[in-house]
Amino acid sequence: MLDSQMEAATDLAAASATVELDPRDRGGAQQPLLIVRDLLKHFPVKGTGGKSVQAVDGVSFEVQKGETLGIVGESGCGKSTLARLLLHLIRPDSGELVFDGDQVDAPRGITVSALRRQVQMVFQDSYSSLNPRMPVRDSVAFGPFVQDTPKLQAREIARDMLTKVGLNPDQFGPRYPHELSGGQKQRVNIARALATNPRMVILDEPVSALDKSVEAQVLNLLRALKRQFNLTYVFISHDLMVVRYISDRVLVMYLGRVVELGPSEKIFVAPQHPYTRALLASQPSMDPARRMEEPPITGDPPNPIDPPSGCRFRTRCTFAEAVCEVTSPGLATINGDTSHVAACHMLDRASGHSLATAGSA
Amino acid sequence: MSQTATLPASPETFEDQAAPETRIRSYWQSVGYRLRHDKMTLFFGSIVLLIVLAAVFAPLLAPFDPYKESIIGRLKPIGWRNHTLGTDELGRDMLTRLLYGGRVSLLMGIVPVIFATCIGGMLGVMAGFMGGRVNTGIMRTMDVFYAFPSVLLAVAISGAMGGGMMNGMLALTLVFIPPMCRVAETATTQVRSLDFIEAARATGAGTFVIVRHHVLGNVLGPVFIYASSLVSVSILLASGLSFLGLGVRPPTADWGLMLSTLRQSIYVVPFVCALPGVAIFVTSICFNLVSDGLRAAMDVRM
Amino acid sequence: MSRYILQRILYAIPIAFGVSVVCFSLVYLAPGDPLQTVLPPDATAETIEIVKKAYGFDKPLPIQFLIWLGKVVTGDFGMSIATRRPVLDEIIMALSNTGMLAMFAIPTAFTIGFLMGLLAGCFPGKWIDRGVTGTAVFGVSLPNYWLAIVMVIIFAVELSWLPATGMGPKGSAEFSIWRWSDTQFLVLPVITLSMIPIGIISRTTRAAIAEMRNQDFVQTLRAKGLSEFAVIRHVIKNALPGVLAVMGLQFGYLLGGSILVETVFTWPGSGFLLSKAIINRDVPVLQGTILTLAIAFVMTNLIIDLLQSMIDPRIRRG
C-alpha cells in the first residue's frame, strides 16, 4: 500500500507538469477545470414549519486539470448532493460553478447542457443506474446518441468503450443488466460515462457496493482510463483507504460543509481538523499493539435539519469550547501552506480558543 | 502496480466475467418463453382466441339469420329441430344470436380498455414524470372519479347520456382511466427515482427522449398487466350496461341485452335463458385466467 | 393521531366536492336542453318558469352549481319526473331497503371471504388453497345479474324453495327481518350480492396471509415456542390492514353491484330505483341517487382509513 501511496504522489507531480491540453481547453493549464463557489442547497422539509435539511451549506473548492479530488465524509454529510449539484442534476439554491473559466448557467457563461457534454457521472448503485429493459450496449450508446451522434456511430462508440473497460462487446453488449455481476455492471456504468468523451468524471461512491477483490480491479481500471483519456476525477467515497489510494487531493466534508482540504498525503499523514483525525483514527488498525480502547468519535451526526450553531462538529469534538458555539470557523491555512486548509478555531490564533497556538505559525 | 497502466484487452483477464451459458433474452422474449411453457394460460388463451374468432366470423359460422323471427318457433328448448341451442322469445336461433352477440359484447368490452389504457397511461406517465403540481392536479382529479364505485359511475354517465353503444363505451373508458392512470403513475414514479434516469439527464437528454427511451419500456409491463385484467371486468360491466338497457338497442344481438329480455321467460325455457350469461361468464373467466398467466409471466423483477 | 384524523377528514372534503361537481354535470351530459331534462315532458309553461327561476337556468354555470349545491345540502334533490314525488323521499325509502340487503350481505361476504382466504393462506399450495383460489376466480368472473337469474331458476323455478322476486305481498313498509315469510325474500339477493366480494376478499386475504407467514418475525415467534394458533393470531393482526382496505372497496362494489342484482330480484332498493330512473329517463332521480351513493362510498372509505390507522401505526406517520 505504501508503494501505491508513493506512486499516487508522483502521479500528481507528473500530471501537473505535463497536462496534455484538450482541444476543448479554454483557460490553459493553470486555469482550474472546475471552480465551486459558495454552493448551497437546502431541502425544505414538510411539517417542520419551513425548516430545511442543509445538505450542502456554502461549499467552495477548485478542481485542477488532470487531478483526482477525493471527497470523504460520513453518510448524510451531503457528498451525493454535492455530486449532483456539480452536474446541475439538482439546481443549487445559490453559489456558482465555473467550468474551465466559463460560469455555468449564467448570461455570459456556458449552458447546463454544454456542461453536461464535458462532465459525466458514475453512480453508486450499479443496479439502479442501468435501465433494466435495455441491453447494456444501448445504455452505453445512449449518451452519444442523445448528443447528436448518428445511431450506427453511437453503437460503434459503445462497442469501443465496452472493450476499453474490459468487457467483450460481442459477449456482453447484448446482455441485460440482471445478467451481469456487480463489477461488470459498474464497468458498463464507467463505459457509459466515458462514451460521450467527457473531460471530467464525477464518481459517486463507484466502488462502495462491490466486493473487495472487484473493487481493486475497478479502481485500477479507473486509474488506467484516467491516464488514457486524460481525465479529471472527482471521487466521492466514505472509504478512506479507497480515497487515499486514488486521490491527489482530499476534501473532508461534515454536515454540508468543508472541514479540511489538502494534498492526499498531508491529510492522511498530518490531519489538522479534529474531525479528520477522528475519522482516520476510527479505521481499525492492523497492528494489535495499536489496538484502540476508546472510540475516537462517539454519537451520531447531529440532525441536519437543526445543525449546531457555530462549528458544526463541536457537539462531538473533545476540544469544544465556548468560542466554537458562537462563531463558525473559516478555512485557515496550515503552517503557511496554502495547499492545505482546515476549518477549526484551534488553527486560528485570533479565534480565542485556548489551544489556538497548535496550528498556524 | 505499473501493469494497471496497460489496459486489459481481452475480457478473460477478469475473474468476475464468468457468465451463465444461457441464451440472452430481452424482457419480452423471456415473457414469451414463460408463456409458451404455461399450459394453463395457453389453454385458456386458445379459448379466448376461439371466442374472438367465432365473433369475428359470425356471419360465416352462424346457421341462421340473426333477425329471422318465427311465431311458431318461439322459446323452444335446446336441440329443437335444427336449433342446437334453442330459440328466443321471438323465435330467433339462439346459437346464431350468441355468435352475433359476441361481436357487440367483445367490442364493448375491449375497446374501452384500449382507449383507457392509452389515455390513462399517458396521463399517469405525465403525472409521474413531471411530479409536483402537474402530478397533484392530475391525481386529485382522478381521486374524484375513484370516489364512485365503478358500476355506479358507468351507469351514471351512460344513463345520463341516454344509453347506446357509443355512450356505453365512452362511459366505460371514463371509468377505467383513473385506475389505469394510477397504475402508470406509480410505475413511473418508481422508475423516475432510479439512477439511470439521472444518468440519462446527465448526458443532456431532454424530457421527451428520456420518457421515450427509459421510462416507457419500464412502465409498459405493469400497465399491460393491469389492462389485461381490466378486459374481464370491462366485459362484465359492458354486458351489465346492456342488461340495464343502456347498450345496443333491439333487435341487435348482445349478450347482456339477450339475458335481460329472456329473463321474462325463465319459467318456460330456463336453460335457454341462462345461455347468454354462460357466454359472458366463460369469456370473462377465460380473460381473467389469461390475465393471471400474463401477470405471472411478466411480474418478474429483473 | 388526532392530527392524522383531521388530515384525512380535510382530505375527504375536496373529494366530496368533486363528486358533487360530477353529479351536477350529469344533467348537462344528457342530450338536449338541461331544463327539459329535469322536467316532465308535459310540464306547463308556468312550471317551466318556476323551475327555471329556482335553479337559475338563466344564470352562468358556476352560479347554477352553487344554487344546486345549496339545495342538495338542505336535502332538496328536486322532483322525480316519473312519480312527481320529491327525489329525497324516494332515495330514503330505497336506501333503507338496500341497507337491509347490505346488512346481511356485508357480514356474509366479509366473514366467508376472510375465512376462505385465511385457510388458503395457511396451507399454501395444498388442495384447500387451490380450491379457494379456483373458487375466487369463479367469483370474480361471475356476472352477478346472471348468477341472480340462475339462482332464481334453480331455487325458485326448479325447486320452488324460495320466492323469486320482490319483498313479499306486504311490500317494504311492513317488511320485518324477524318473520321468515319476509326474510325468505332476502336469501337469494344476499347470496348473489356477496359472491363477488367473497372472491375478491378471499384472494386478497390469501395473498396477505401467505406473505406475512414468510416474514422473519413469524420464524422468531415459532422459535420462541409459540403454538401455531398463537402464531396465526399475530399473522392475522399484521395482514388485517391490507385486507381492510380491500373490504372498503368491496363495500362500494356492493353499492354498485346492487343496481343489477336488485333489478333482477325487483328488490325496491337504490339500485332498482336507479334502473327504473334509467328506463324512465328520470334524470333528477338518477342524479340524486348517484350522489347519495357516492357520498356514502366516500364516507366508508374515510372510516376504513381511520380504522386502518388505528390498527397499523405506520400509516399515521406515513
Main beta sheet of chain B: none
Question: Helix proportion of residues of chain B, in percent?
Answer: 55-70%
Q: What is the helix/strand order of chain B?
A: HHHHHHHHHHH
Number of strands of chain B: 0
Alpha carbon gyration radius of chain B: 25 Å
Strand content of chain B is under 5%
Regarding CATH, which class of chain B? Mainly Alpha
User: pLDDT below 50 for ≥5 consecutive residues: which ranges of chain C?
Assistant: none
Which percent range describes the beta-strand content of chain C? Answer: under 5%
pLDDT < 50 stretches of chain B: 1-20
What does this structure look like?
- The complex is a heterotrimer of chains A (361), B (302) and C (318).
- With 361 residues, chain A is α/β, with parallel strands linked by helices.
- Chain A has helices at residues 2-17, 79-86, 112-116, 136-146, 151-164, 169-172, 182-194, 212-229, 240-246, 264-269, 274-281, 322-326; strands at residues 34-44, 52-63, 68-72, 94-99, 102-103, 119-122, 200-204, 232-237, 249-254, 257-263, 332-334, 337-342.
- Chain A has a domain at 3-254: P-loop containing nucleotide triphosphate hydrolases (Rossmann fold, 3-Layer(aba) Sandwich), CATH 3.40.50.300.
- Chain A contains twelve helices and twelve strands.
- The model of chain A is unreliable at 13-17 (pLDDT under 50).
- Chain B is an all-alpha fold.
- The relative contact order of chain B is 0.14.
- Mean pLDDT of chain B is 84; it is low at 1-20.
- Chain C has 318 residues and is mainly α.
- Chain C is 77% helix and 0% strand.
- Chain C has helices at residues 2-29, 34-37, 45-55, 61-73, 87-122, 127-141, 144-158, 180-213, 216-223, 228-265, 270-279, 283-311, 313-317.
- Chain C has 13 helices and no strands.
Features:
heterotrimer; A: 361 residues; alpha/beta; Rossmann fold; eight-stranded mixed β-sheet; four-stranded antiparallel β-sheet; 12 helices; 12 strands; globular; C: 318 residues; mainly alpha; 13 helices; 0% strand
Summarize the structure.
The complex is a heterotrimer of chains A (361), B (302) and C (318). Chain A is an alpha/beta fold. Chain A contains twelve helices and twelve strands.
